[in-house]
Amino acid sequence: MSPEPTPILRAEGLVKRFGGFYALGGLTFHVAPGEILGLVGPNGSGKTTAINVISGLYAPDGGSVTFEGRAIGGLSSHRLVHLGINRTFQVPKPFLSLTVRQNIEVALAYGRSAAAPPSMESLLEEYRLADVADRPAQDLNNVQQKTLDLARALATGPRLLLLDELAAGLNPTELDWMAGRIKSLARSGMAIIVVEHLMGFIEQITDRVIVMNAGKEIFEGTLAVAVKVPEVIEVFLGGEHAA
Amino acid sequence: MPSAIRHLLFIVVPLLVVFAILPGVYENHLMLFNFVVFLILAQGVNVIYGFTGYLPFGYVGFFGSGAYGFAMMVMHAHASAPVAVIAAGLAGMLIGLLLTPLLRLSGAYFAIANLASSLAVLHFVANPALEDITRGPYGVSLTATFNPEAAYWAALVVLALTLGVVVYLKNSRFGLALQAVREDPVSAGMAGVNVVRMRVAAWLASALIAGLAGGVYAWYVSVFFPDNVFSGTFSIFAIVFALFGGVATIIGPIVGVLILYGVYNLIGFTTPQYFQLIYGLLIMGLVLFLPAGLVSLVTRRGRHVP
Amino acid sequence: MLVYALVAGLLFGLYFSLVGIGLNLVFGVMRIVNLAHGDFLMLGAFIAVGVSALAALDPLFAVPLAFVVFVLVGLVLYRLLVPRLQGSVNPEMLSIILFFGLSQVIEALTTIAFGTSERSIDSSELGAILAPLRTALFGGDADGPVELFGQSFPASWAISATVSVIAIGLVYVYLYRTRLGTLTRAVMSRRDEAFATGINVDRVSAAAFGIGLGLAAVAGVFAPFMFGSVTPAFGEDATVTSFAVVVLGSLGNPLGTALGGVVYGISYMLVQTYLSSWADLLPYVLLILILLLRPSGLLGRRVRVA
Questions:
Q1: How many structural domains comprise chain A?
Q2: Which of A162, A165, B42, C170 ranks highest by number of CB atoms within 10 Å?
Q3: B291 in contact with chain C, both atoms CB, cutoff 8 A
């Protein structure tokens, strides 16, 4: 076992309230460069909220988030992107009336990545968007829009990538392909957090999972161990999980 | 040849040349001047609505502020007309700056708040209590700077600047980023775009354009009342002309002004209520059957429109 | 003077609630901005003028007539306009322009039919049918002013306010005590989910649109008494006032409009009494401030920030 590398992102006691509802009630976790961390839990357990807070969509109401040792709670999205954090969305959000190429061009031009970002052509090639490069994004199917979301995120050269249910809606062949892409990104040193319902996919790609319930982590470790923990099983009972 | 140069050579320059020659061959100079003013305003609406999606229902607020900025510079500072036109642009921008908080609102809320703000500026300027400063409801008369011919040329300069801005937006990454913000502000942030700064920049640019237009208008007409230069007709015409042609293009608003304002001049003056009727039906038909404007007849066939 | 301003403000405020409530119902259910709202008020006023002048009847008879006619008009217009509009990319934004077009058509047609002259009705005609009842209950002069809190007010104000309260009460009964009304509230709070749960959103929307227009026309019946007179151009001002009232109470919450109307009416009368030269500015400034400071309105919970 090699010693664990220094985490790139640490969340400590993260709190997010909506009115009186605690979407996050003191979430603590970390992720290291090159690591793929799975965030799992039943609906409403706060997975997407966690991603939204880390990517600057919401400011946290308590606790701290540090990225490369720097407090980033409450910074706006574009600042976080410039620091090296990016994400995809559960429901893909491309710029619908712009072409695929223009979608990526905006991110290449404004992403200001510290590392040299990938080139337009390599992104189009690697994410199977070359054939539709000059079509408006609204003509794309859901899977293509999801990969476009990913390509746009990668164009900003992130060191931490948050993937919100990227696998939902992909067929088995596409799932394998996507798993390969995500693993190779991690091998290049990128830290990746994956929110996902598909346990098979989680098992295939993650090094470690955090199981969340009611806005808090209740387990940390590998998925294989997680499914044997009574507390975790209880949380998932009646849910979509089949261990 | 880069597309920006092509757009300048084949769209902007010919349009300016035509409007530079027309006064020599056509007698109704006021109508020509109004065409130029509406070309400026429609493109100003294009900058803010076409590229960022904010519908400026009170766009005339900037125009009227520009006209009064011009008048006050001439009346109180005895400024020369060109200086006063620049002040007019700044007056428009100043109002734009005051109204930047409105950009926090979205959709219909922004449109309504912007309409209300233009009416607020009107009632402020027209208030009898401010007679010493703005002449209140009694209007201004600027005989010292009266020179319609010079004002017409100034309007052409403003039009050239405005078209330059639109050509830049159409061909630059800045313009692309603005459109990204319009399509999806959250995603634009994730592309690294500073959404707030982008919106404010486009907003102020479009306020400056309308302010300058108000300035040259005040110079040209030289006698006007608050109700004239703050008339909602300016906002509505500019929006409808831009939409009719098609926003987020260079050519759309130009086509819109030439056709619709042309129609207006054919039937509008003699029987205003019939014009209003046709105009209202035209707007409704536009929204229901051609919401992306005339250019969409071409773009829906897969062709690009500058 | 303060008591007078407060009571007059309350009477006007109740009336303003009626003026705005239809607009809010339509926006709440359909996310459509009916910029022609004021024009339906204006048409209601013309019905009252017609009932009074042609049939020599108490204008109160215009209330049911206006309501029924405009519910029907609303149902027809809904079929013609709304499905197509909601199939477009950005219905909320385009609705502003579409209904602006409609307001132009209505104003033009009314001008063509009736000319631009001001129409008014002798205020003693309103409620003449109730005069025996009034003398029986309160005694005194049958067509004189009414006494409230030691101040006297035109009887027409009190009648307008009373009818407004009744109408708002009926809207409450509709929304909370009928099946269609319950569905209407469901659509207002979660439009997307309402589709998914199999509610006939189309039927609910058509009903809300019809009732919204009917209520506008009923409010219009009293406009000649509350504002002195009406012209075909009255619609535009009425629309802006309605927006101020509705936004004050919170857009999308029809009963909030009742509060919005009263707040608006009282502030209007207070400004009118103590700062009359700035009274014109009030609706606009109030509208902008509320949108910026408390974007969800006094009673709202919906987020409307970009």
A1: 1
A2: B42
A3: yes
